[in-house]
Task: structure prediction
Amino acid sequence: MHAFDVLGDPVRRRILELLAEGELTSGAVTAVIQEEFGISQPAVSQHLRVLRESGFATVRPQGARRLYAVNSEPLRDVDVWLDRFRRFWTPHLDALATEIARGKRDRRLREAANPTSGPARTSGTARTARADRSDSEEQPRRDT
Result:
């Protein structure tokens, strides 16, 4: 089975996400997957078998339990394949990082220039008072 056929299934991707956090028993994997996807224990076992046979997961016995872990080698192969496409998104992500840094710098400079003004938070009472003032200012004055 091709790597993208294996990774194309959301259940198998989720299992790999779980295993990326560390070794898990098949029972622990099954409990999470059953909860999240509502599939049976035999179906989860089938997904674990596909991951194992395709090389994405390893299994080792520990007493009566089976501990699953990620095998990073096939993921490296996927990463190598994706490398030819990184040129499409890397400049955009770099530009985004630059804009975020620029925004943070501008905010720091504004706050340093005017240290008494914190974030623009106005209480409801202050807004009402301003609205009342502007309402009275808009009405023509009557000389009596």
Notes: The helical segments are 3-7, 10-20, 26-37, 41-53, 72-83, 86-113, 124-138.
